[in-house]
Amino acid sequence: MTTPDITWTNQGKFNKLEFHLKASLDDTYVFSRNPSLPSYIITVKFGIVSATATVIHTKLRNGGHYEAKRSILECPNLSSTTPKTDLSCDLKNQYKIHFSVSTGGYRQLKNDWSFYDQNNYNAIKTENSMELHFDYDDPFHCTEDYSCTSREVPFILRHDVTKGALNPQWSGWKDKLSGILRYVFEVWKMEYSYDHKGLREPLINRTFNPVPLFIQEVNASDSISFPTYEPNEPGVYSAILEVNDKANNSKYARQVAIYDRTSNISTSSDRLIIVTTASELSNFTWQTSHLSKIDVIWSGHFVNEVHEKGYFLEKILDYVPRLDDGSEGRRHDYKKILPGFDDNKGERNKAAIPNIKSIIRFETVGIPGIPMSVAPKTGWEDVTPLNDNKSFPLTDIRDGDSYQLWIRAHDIMGNSKVDSTAVHFDRSKPTVHSVKIKYNIDDGEYPFSSRVRVSARDDHSGVRKVSFRFVVNGTLNEKAKKDFLIETKSKEICDRIPSDCYCVKMGECFLIKTVLDINNCWLKVPIHQVANFVLLLEVTVYNSAMLSSKSYVTIGTVKHLQGIQQYYSPSNITVVSRTSSSVSIKWIQAKTCYERAGIVIILYTPDNKTKEFPVDKDATTFDLSGLSSLTSYRFLMYTKYGNDTIVVTSASPAKFSFVTRKKETGFPTSGIAGIAGGFTVLLIFVIIVLVFLGRTGRLQPAKQRVTAGIRTVRNTIRVRPTTNSFNNRAIVSKEDDDIYFYGGMEIKENNMKISRKDISLESELARGRFAVIFLAKYYNKSECHEVVAKTLKDDQNAKAIMKMKAKINFYTKKVGRQKNVLEFIGSVEDEVRGPMMILEYCSKGVLKQFLEAIKSNMSIDIEEKLFRMVFGICQGMDFLASKQVVHRRLAARNILLNSILEPKITGFGPDPSYDEGEDNPGNERIPIKWVAPECMKSTQYANELSDVWSFGIVMWEIFSLGETPYPGLQSREVPGKLKKGYKMTKPELCDDAFYAVMLKCWHYDPKKRSGFEQLKEQMNNMFTEAPGDDYYYRTNDL
Fold it and tell me: pLDDT tens digits for 288-311?
């Protein structure tokens, strides 16, 4: 008898067991060698003559087995006289089955050809058995029955905070009945549940059946090869071990690990390290009281963004049970993690890890003395318990001393980040020695200037700011207020002038005397009032700790100040052109403290009659027409000041006289006769030529050339009425080039001012010569918008502040809003950073970079967008030209794209972008390949038509996908080539119609170029308007 077959099961719900017995006998093979039948045997048959199954039910008792019941089952219809070669027998019973099969047969004898007898052969028995064992118990670990011998662990990860692969280990698992069959190791990435505030494995629901990132089976043996798995991204991972016995009972264990090999700690530029015991007025850098301690806070300054956004250190939720054997099965939600086999130990376990912005440990050290740039190596102390603030005791601190505070942050991966702040000490106020005023100076910073000389000193922290406050004597009503930041000097400069300069302990040096210009217009009196009240100048001197001292100076009545209640007429009137019936004049607008309401020209004719011409308040040119030839005229020119209700006319008009030209007469009779005779000779010559061409067969080509010439003349005639003066709306004025014109203005548009608390600086995007660009958030009522904040650099000076104010006023007063011009949202006054510009954020970045990026991914949709970009830029430039704004630097690098690829024009301003520190246009850096020929030496006199040339270059850049213009040519070669008539060829993606627009922009003579308004109308005809504001290019019209 062979060894029994054993089958294990954990199924308990059944009332019937079916055993199916199969047996067969190949009598042809078995008896193939037998001799042939003797003559006295009629027939012989062999087969299975009996089959039985003995079912034995055994049970466990006292550690052993005993036989509870035995049954013998017999397959029917079997005997020696009815042997079968194939047997199939169903036995419906249970437990342990002993199978027995007997083979035999019979032979029939004959005598003299008749049947004599039948003999049955002795049966030969074959036996086998099978056992069906039942096991309803899960595997168990030796820790459960205290049978461990060598620190066996149910399940562990060698490193639960790792930058490498997850390496599991397990040992000590047992199963008393069926034994351990296999282990299954699986890995899941955990996700955060906002409802339950913790991390968990993905849940099974009606629409989603999650699968693990990794799963591997390991057969049970004495020597186990443990699997490993390395995730492909940072995260918190759940590793689950299934221990499975031969009866398919399972027990599960779980371990949790953090995997991260890329993240680091960053610091916030918005949430800084702050010394809360220092003065807020000094931006928390100077402490003016409580010199016994320093309180410092760094809330939100350090953060691991990856860990914080992924909730790496939050608690791990209990495992949600899952899986069952179906409605008829014994097990429901059998995949579960018992508390004893969950992750309760190690660095990353189920419990939340204490942290502040995913920082688990802070160290600090405080060092007195001048701040250093290198962190100390010793003296660090842990902040316990974990906190983001600390107090530092002080001893023997004096005015002018400094104390540097270092903080080092650590995350769970072992990354660290160090940052510091310094606090200085000063309890004494500055000393003001003298204040002197010189009125109505000629070389001042403003059109109407007075100069104040302040002599002040502070030996501990230096004089940092001077504030002027103009108040009415007696009432002390404030008339105007102005703050001036004081620049520091280098020690080298200070050492050269020791009597006029001093240095403080922290190394900064200051001049004792400060010269500041004030704008008389700050003190202007409304038109309808008399300037007879007396003003006091309150001078407040602040040291770096923002402690202050005041001094007062009497200004007296303000009517003696230039510009106050003085209303000037235009000056420098000149004749631009004259004819027999008209004259074109230009002038310079008068400097003024008041708003102009308009200009009036009163023309006197020879017969002493007058004619009045109203002129726009901002105009600088005008045409007087309807005049008589060779006649002397004179006119008076007044400027009106005020508003709709109160108007004052300039006291002294500007006077000017001129004489019109002589009227041109027609040809004399002799001249007409000569022309007629010449025309007759020419006509005869043309007839002879035509006869000659006709006879030689060359008439038709010549006719075509003549027709083309006529068409050219006709087209020229059509364009000619669009004169230079009509196209060229945007011309350069003095105000456009003078940064001080706009910089001297006060920012008065309240609707454009934004509170500093509504702006949150997020991250630095770029850094220029004088400004830093930040990505920021603008909290407007209940909404939050992404914007761009343009701020001054840390080393800001009066000139940089002036330039920033000029840009703000320029955008506010002159530019306005249009969808293809970068939107100026408003301005912010920051006590520390100075004035800030808040601009529209364009998420798709610079047009040139976008074009270069799409070269390998062109499509019809993108090609359509290129045409729409060109049209949008044209619309934006037409808007700027209508506002008399000259760009001067139009190029693809000065176009931004928003999220829907709308172009936004930027890069223009109130002054030309000369080299830093240079006011001379001769030193201007000019992008030769983008500017018009007339601007290649200087853009000082650029205008709308020179911007049109640059627009044609931008079109070429767009359709060539960001290529540099004039490929193969160096910049120095371009002017000569253009003078000879060279023009770039059509880019591959450009069609004939748009290339024709390019060529129209590239006329060497500016007078032949179309203005943006004509270009816009021409392009508008090429597009069809869709619902909304979108335009689509009509290629079928070409």
Answer: 987 889 999 999 999 999 999 999
- The H-assigned helical ranges of 607-665 are none
pTM of the full structure = 0.54
What does the alpha-carbon distance between residue 817 and residue 396 come to, in Å, rounded to a whole number? 59
982 burial type by CB count under 10 A (0-12 exposed, 13-18 middle, 19+ buried): middle
Q: Which two tokens stand for residue 231?
A: 């995730």
Structure tokens at 6: 């054993």
Is CATH 2.60.40.10 the classification given to domain 140-262+315-341? Answer: yes
- Whether 460 shows a pLDDT value over 60: the answer reads yes
Q: What is the token pair recorded at 378?
A: 């010793």
Structure tokens at 422: 């310094």
Distance between CA atoms of 750 and 827, rounded to whole angstroms? 10
Most confident of 666-675, 793-802, 847-856: 847-856
Are the CB atoms for 892 and 963 separated by under 8 Å?
no
Q: What is the largest CA-CA distance in the chain?
A: 176
Residue 737 has pLDDT above 80, yes or no: no
Residue 781, number of CB atoms within 10 A of its CB? 6
Supply the CATH classification number for the domain 845-1037: 1.10.510.10
CA 400 – CA 508 distance, rounded (Å): 11
Q: Which sequence spans correspond to the domains of the chain?
A: 5-134, 140-262+315-341, 266-305+355-425, 431-560, 571-659, 669-720, 734-840, 845-1037
| Rounded Cα distance, 106 and 83, in Å | 8
Query: pLDDT confidence of 825, banded at 50, 70, 90?
Result: very high
- Of 207, 195, 161, 168, nearest to 184 by C-alpha is 168
Please state, in angstroms and rounded to a whole number, the distance separating the CA atoms of residues 569 and 571.
6
What residues contact residue 814 under an 8 Å CB cut-off, 6+ apart?
883, 884, 885, 910
What is the DSSP pairing of strand 18-24 with strand 86-92? antiparallel
Q: Coil, strand or helix: which one is 202?
A: coil
Pick the CATH number of 571-659 from 3.30.930.10, 3.20.20.70, 3.90.850.10, 2.60.40.10: 2.60.40.10
Q: Which residues contact 603 (CB under 8 A, 6 or more apart)?
A: 610, 611, 612, 613, 624, 633, 634, 635
Q: Is 45 exposed, middle or buried (0-12, 13-18, 19+ CB in 10 A)?
A: middle
Domain at 734-840, CATH homologous superfamily: Phosphorylase Kinase; domain 1 (3.30.200.20)
For residues 382 and 365, give the distance between their C-alpha atoms in angstroms, rounded to a whole number: 9
Q: Where are the alpha helices (DSSP H) in 720-859?
A: 724-727, 734-737, 739-743, 798-810, 847-853
Q: At residue 669, does pLDDT exceed 80?
A: no
Q: Tell whether the model's pLDDT for residue 387 goes beyond 70.
A: yes
Question: Per residue in 461-470, pLDDT tens?
Answer: 999 999 999 9
Q: How many of the other CB atoms lie within 10 Å of CB of 436?
A: 12
Q: Which two tokens stand for residue 485?
A: 């930041």
Residue of higher predicted confidence among 684 and 787: 787
